[in-house]
Amino acid sequence: MSDFIELFIKQLQSPTLGFLIGGIVVASFGSQLAIPDSIYRFITFFLLMKIGLSAGIAIRNSNPTEIFLPALGAMLVGIAIVFIGQYTLGRLPGIKTTDALATGGLFGAVSGSTLAALLPQLDSANIPYEAWSAALYPFMDIPALVTAIVVASVYLTKKNGEASEKVEIWPIIKESLQSSAVTAMLLGVALGILTKPESVYESFFNPLFRGFLAILMIIMGMEAAQRMNELRKVAQWFAIYAFIAPIVHGFLAFGVGLIIHKITGFSIGGAVVLAVIAASSSDISGPPTLRAGIPSANPSAYIGASTAIGTPVAIAICIPLFIGIAEMMAR
Amino acid sequence: MSDFIELFIKQLQSPTLGFLIGGIVVASFGSQLAIPDSIYRFITFFLLMKIGLSAGIAIRNSNPTEIFLPALGAMLVGIAIVFIGQYTLGRLPGIKTTDALATGGLFGAVSGSTLAALLPQLDSANIPYEAWSAALYPFMDIPALVTAIVVASVYLTKKNGEASEKVEIWPIIKESLQSSAVTAMLLGVALGILTKPESVYESFFNPLFRGFLAILMIIMGMEAAQRMNELRKVAQWFAIYAFIAPIVHGFLAFGVGLIIHKITGFSIGGAVVLAVIAASSSDISGPPTLRAGIPSANPSAYIGASTAIGTPVAIAICIPLFIGIAEMMAR
Amino acid sequence: MSDFIELFIKQLQSPTLGFLIGGIVVASFGSQLAIPDSIYRFITFFLLMKIGLSAGIAIRNSNPTEIFLPALGAMLVGIAIVFIGQYTLGRLPGIKTTDALATGGLFGAVSGSTLAALLPQLDSANIPYEAWSAALYPFMDIPALVTAIVVASVYLTKKNGEASEKVEIWPIIKESLQSSAVTAMLLGVALGILTKPESVYESFFNPLFRGFLAILMIIMGMEAAQRMNELRKVAQWFAIYAFIAPIVHGFLAFGVGLIIHKITGFSIGGAVVLAVIAASSSDISGPPTLRAGIPSANPSAYIGASTAIGTPVAIAICIPLFIGIAEMMAR
Amino acid sequence: MSQQVWKLVIVGEEILSKKIIKLIKAAGATGYTVNAAGGEGSRNVRSTGDPSVSHTLSNVKIEVLTGTRELADKITHDIATKFYADYSIITYIYQVEALRDHKF
Amino acid sequence: MSQQVWKLVIVGEEILSKKIIKLIKAAGATGYTVNAAGGEGSRNVRSTGDPSVSHTLSNVKIEVLTGTRELADKITHDIATKFYADYSIITYIYQVEALRDHKF
Amino acid sequence: MSQQVWKLVIVGEEILSKKIIKLIKAAGATGYTVNAAGGEGSRNVRSTGDPSVSHTLSNVKIEVLTGTRELADKITHDIATKFYADYSIITYIYQVEALRDHKF
Ligand SMILES: Nc1ncnc2c1ncn2[C@@H]1O[C@H](COP(=O)(O)O)[C@@H](O)[C@H]1O
Ligand SMILES: Nc1ncnc2c1ncn2[C@@H]1O[C@H](COP(=O)(O)O)[C@@H](O)[C@H]1O
Ligand SMILES: Nc1ncnc2c1ncn2[C@@H]1O[C@H](COP(=O)(O)O)[C@@H](O)[C@H]1O
Ligand code: NA
Ligand code: NA
Ligand code: NA
C-alpha cells in the first residue's frame, strides 16, 4: 500500500498536472491571461491528429481483429455510464431526469485532452499499451452520446403522453462523427493507416505534442475555475456526482479491461487507457451534440459538472491512480 | 514507360497528397472540422517566409546573374498563360471574355501552397534544383495578374466604345507586391540575403515546415470540396479548363525550362520548379487583386475553377508528373 | 574604442534586428501583410512563459536571497524613471504633466519582447548572467506603473483643489499582476520552481523560442511604422524623449547593476539584463493599466512614443550597446 | 429612391445559427447578415463546451431585411415556436428605409 | 404579441467594456449584447498597446434593450458622466418592437 | 439632451471596406463604426480566395451617423454609383436619437 501511495504521489508531480493547477490558480486570481480561441481550437486539432496518426501507424502494422473485444468493451462501458447516471444522479431529490441523462452522456463520452494527458504519462512510466488503443475513443464516445439522447427522447415522449415517434439514431451518430474532435482523430487514424506520414509525424506532431498539451492543460485549468461559478447555480448533487463518477467509471472500465486482458492478450496499459477514457468526460464534441439532442436539459448543469470538476478529477486523480495500480500490478 | 508509371505512382503515395485528399473527404462528409482562419493565415505566412529565407540564403552564396534567364522565362510563361486563357476558354460558347481573362490571370499567377508542397518532394526524390528557384514566384505571378487586368481593361474600354483611357500598370504591380503572400516571400528572401538567419531557420522554419505544410494541405482539400458547389453554378467549361490548363501550362513552362537548361546550366530540377509554379494557380494574393482589377468578372467562376480543381490537379497530378519526368531524365 | 565599435556593429547584424527592420520596411511600404492578432497574443504568451520557466528552473537550484539586492535595484530604477520623466519631459513647453507621467510610467515599465530579444543575444555573445535575472521584470514593471498612476492622481487632486482623497495602491498592483504579460511570466516562474517542466521546456519552449521571437520582431517593426503616424499628431518632444530616454535609463540601471556587482557577486551579464529592462518600455501590460489609471493622459502620446521609437531604440541600439560594453569589460 | 422595409433582429446562442438561417431561407427571405456577438440575458445559458476564458463570442446576431411585415412575423413565429422554450434567444423588429433598387 | 422597447447603442473603446457592462447591470437592465467593432470618430484615441497592424477591432458596440426610456437615459447619463471626458465613446437610442413574452 | 441624426448602414464584401471608408470620409462624415459580418444575399459573390471552410466572415457592416439626411444620401449615392453593379452590397437608413453633446 505504501508503495502504491508513493507511486501515486510521484504521478501527482508530473508537469501535466502542474500546468492544470497553474491554470486554475491563474483564473481564480482573476488574471486577464487568455489563450485565444483559435489557438485552443488548433491545439485540440493538433493533439487529436497526433494521437490519431500514431494509432493509425500502429494499426497499419497490427492485427485489426485484436481491437474487436476492447472496442466492444468500450461501447458497453459508454452505454452503462449513461444508465448509471440515470439511476443514481437521476434519482436524487430535485434532479430532472433529462439533466441526469445529459450529464451521464457527457461523462460517458470521451475527452481528447484527458486522453492526450494520459499517453505521455504512460510512456514516462514505461507501461506498455497497444498503440492503437487511443482509437477506442469513438467506440465509447458515440454510444454514450447516442444512448443519452435516445433515452431522453423516449422518456420525454412518454412523459408528455405523445404518440411515441421513433427516435432516429443515425443522425445522432452522424453528428458525432462530424464533430471536429472525432473527425480530427479519425482523419489522423486514416492518414496513419493509408499514407506514410512518418516524416511529418517525427518532425512535427511528435516533438510538439508535450508543449501543446501543457498549454491545453493551462486552458483546461482556467476553464475549470471559470465554470465553477456556473456549477454553483445548480444543485450540489451535480458537483458530488462529478467528483465520484470519474473514479467509479474508471474502475468499471478497468475491470472490463482486465477481463479482456485475461481472455485475449490485451495489455494492462490498454486497460488503463480504457479506464481513463471512461473516467474522462467530453469537453469538445459532447456539449453541442447534447445541447441539440436534449434541448430541455440545463447545459449549466452538465457542462459545469464536467468541465469544473469532472475533467480535473480525471486528469489529477484518475490518471495517477490507474497508472499507479498498473505499476503495482507489474511488480 | 512502365518505369515512369511506377515513379508516378510512388509520388501519389506521398503524405502531402494524402493530407490533401483527407481534407477533401472530411469536407465532403460534412464534418464540422474547421482550422481557424488566423491559423491558416499564419501557416501561409510561415511557409512563404521559409521558402523565401532558404532562397535568400542560397542567393547570398550564388551568382545573381544566373537567375536572369529563368526569371525572364517565368515572366513570359505567366503572360502567355493569360492569352492562352483568352483564346481557348474565352472562345467557348457562353463564356464572357472578362471571366476568361480573370481565370487565365489566376492560373498564370502562382500558388504558395503548391510551391511549398513541391519542394520537400523534390528533396525526397533527390532531384537537385537551384535553391533560389523559389524566388521565381513573383516573376511569374505579377506579370500574369497585370496582363489579365490590363487586357481586360482595354477590352472593356473598346467594347463600351469609351475614349480609351490608359490603364495604369504601376498600381497593379504595387498592389501585387503589397499582397501578403508576395510580401512574405520577398521579406524572407531579403532577410536571407541581408542578415544571418541560419539559427532561426534551422531551429524553427526548417523543422516545422513539413508539419505546417501537411495542415495546409488539409485546409486546401477542405476548401476544394467546399468550392465545388460554387463551381457548379457556372458554366462547365470552367471545370474542364481547370483540369486541363495546369497540365498544359506545366508542360509549356517545363519546355521553357529545358531550353534554358540547354543554354545555361539551369538544372532539370529548376525546370520542374518552373513547371509547377506555372501549373499552380494563385490562392492567396491573386483573388483579391483580380476582384479589384476586373470587378465585372464573376469570382465564383475563377476562384471556383482554381480552388476546387486547379490546385488539387497541380498538387496531385502535376507535381508527381514532372518529378517523375525529371527522374526518368536523370537515369 | 575601435574594439567597442566593432562589437557594436556585429550586434547590429543579428537576425533579431534584421526581422525588426524587415517589419518596419514592410509596413512602411504599405504591405497587406498582417500577422493575426491571436497569433501575436499566443507568441507573447509563449515567449514570456519560456522566459519564466527558465528563470523558475534556475531559481529552483539557486539561493533565493541573491535576488534581493537586484530586485531592490530594479524597483528603485523603475520608480526613478517616472520622476525623471516628470522633471524632464514634463517641464518642456506644451507638455501636460499627466502625459509626461504616463510616458514615464510606460518607459519605466518593461517590455517582454525586448527582454525576449536580449536573452538569446547574451547567449550568443557568451556573456554569463544569472538565469533568474529575467524574474526582475515585475520588480521594475509594477513599481513604475504604480508610481506614475499615484503621482498623477495626487497631482490632479491638488490641481483641481479637491479634498485629497487617498489613492489606493493595492488595486493598481493587483491589476498589474493580473495583466496577461505579468501573469504569463510569473506562471512560468512558478511552474519552473514547483514542477519539473524540463521535458516540456526542452521539447517545446526552448527550440521554438528563436523562431517565435523572430516573428514577434516583424510584428513589432510593423507596429512601430504604423504608430509613427500617431506620434506625428503629438508634440515632437515625445519623439525626442523616446529616442534618448531608453539609453539614459539603460545607463542608469547598468550603473546600479555595477554597484550591486561590486557589493555581491551579481554578474555583469545580470547588469546588462537590468540595463535592458530599464531601457525597454512596456508594450503589453502597461498601456491598458495606464489608460485606466490616468484616463486624462493622451494615449497617442505615450503609446506612440513607446511603440514607434522607444522599443526600436531599446532593441536596435540598447541591446547591442550594453552587450558591447559587457564584452569590452570582460576582456 | 427608397422603400420601407422591416429589419428583424435575432440574438441567440451560436449553436442555433445554422438552424435559424435555414428557417429564414425557408420562410422566403432574400438574405440575412450575421455577426458574432456576446451577451447576457435572463436565461443566459451556455451551449458549448468551448473555453469561456478565451472570451469566445458565444452568441450570434442575425439581421433580416424583409419587404413585408408578414414575412418578418412568420420568421419570428417560427423561431418562437421552435426555440423559445429551450434556448437563450430574443427577437425585435423596426422599420428602415432601403435603396429602392434592391429587392427584399 | 409585441411591446415597444428602447434600444440603446454604445460604441466605445474596448478597454471600457467591462466597466460599461457593470454599469448597465447596476442600472437594472435585463441584459445586453456585445459586438467587437472598429471605427474612427472625432477623438479616436487608441487605448491598447496591441498591434494595430493585425487589424484588431479595438472598439466595442454594446446594445441594451430597455422597457422604459428612463432606464436607457439613466445608463446614458452614467456613461456620459464617467467616460465622456476622457474616452472615445458615443451613444444613441431608438425604439424597436420586441416580442411581448420577453421581459425587458 | 438629444439630437435626431441619421444612421446609414452598409453591408457588403469585406474587400470593399477600405474603399467605402475612404468614400465616407471624403463625403465629410465625422466617423464610422465597422463590424465583421457574414451573410448571404441575392448576388452573394465571394471575393477572396481565403478558405471559406474556416468560417471567415467575408462581409463587413459599416455604420455611419450623420447629422443631415443629405450627407447620408450623398454617401449612399456614391456607393451605389461605384459598387452596385459589380459587388454584393446593400444599404439602408433610419433615424436615431444621439446625445446632443457629440457633433455629427
Ligand atoms: N435587455 C437586453 N438587451 C440587449 N440584449 C439582450 C437583452 N436581453 C437579452 N439579450 C441578448 O439576447 C441573448 C439571449 O437572451 P435570454 O434569452 O434573455 O438569455 C443574450 O445572451 C443577450 O445577447
Ligand atoms: N459619425 C459616426 N458614425 C458612426 N460611428 C461613429 C461616428 N462617430 C464616432 N463613431 C464611433 O464611436 C467611436 C468613438 O467616437 P469618438 O468619441 O468620436 O472618437 C468611434 O471609434 C466610432 O466607432
Ligand atoms: N434581406 C437581407 N437581409 C439582411 N441582410 C441582407 C439581405 N440581403 C442582403 N443582405 C446582406 O448584404 C450582403 C450583400 O447582399 P447582395 O448584394 O444581395 O448579395 C449579403 O451578403 C448580406 O450580408
Ligand atoms: Na467517459
Ligand atoms: Na501559374
Ligand atoms: Na523600462
In short:
Chain A is mostly helical. Chain A contains 14 helices and no strands.
Q: What is the number of helices of chain A?
A: 14
Q: Give every kind of bound small molecule, once each.
A: adenosine monophosphate, sodium ion
Helix coverage percent of residues of chain A? over 70%
Unreliable stretches of chain A (pLDDT < 50, length at least 5) are: none
Structural class of chain A: mainly alpha
Shape of chain D: globular
Molecular shape of chain A: globular
Helix content, binned percent of chain D: 25-40%
Number of helical regions of chain D: 2
How would you sum up this structure, described in words?
The complex is a heterohexamer, with three copies of chain A (331 residues) and three copies of chain D (104 residues). Chain A has helices spanning 2-12, 15-28, 37-60, 68-87, 97-108, 112-124, 137-159, 170-178, 180-194, 198-232, 236-263, 268-279, 286-293, 299-330. With 331 residues, chain A is mainly alpha-helical. The longest helix of chain A is centred in the middle third of the chain and has 35 residues, at 198-232. The two termini of chain A are 13 Å apart. The relative contact order of chain A is 0.21. The model of chain A has no long low-confidence stretch (mean pLDDT 90). Chain D is α+β, with helices and mostly antiparallel strands and 104 residues long. Helices cover 25% and strands 38% of the residues of chain D. Chain D contains two helices and four strands, in the order βαββαβ. Chain D has a four-stranded antiparallel β-sheet, with helices on one face. In chain D, α1 (17-27) packs antiparallel against α2. The model of chain D has no long low-confidence stretch (mean pLDDT 87). Chains in contact: A-B, A-C, A-D, B-C, B-F, C-E, D-E, D-F, E-F. Chains A and B meet through α3, α9 and α10 of A and α2, α3 and α10 of B. β2 (32-40) of chain D pairs antiparallel with β2 (32-40) of chain F, so a sheet runs across the interface. The structure holds adenosine monophosphate (AMP) (3 copies) and sodium ion (3 copies). One adenosine monophosphate sits between chains F (11-12, 39-44, 59, 88-90) and D (29-33, 63-65, 104).
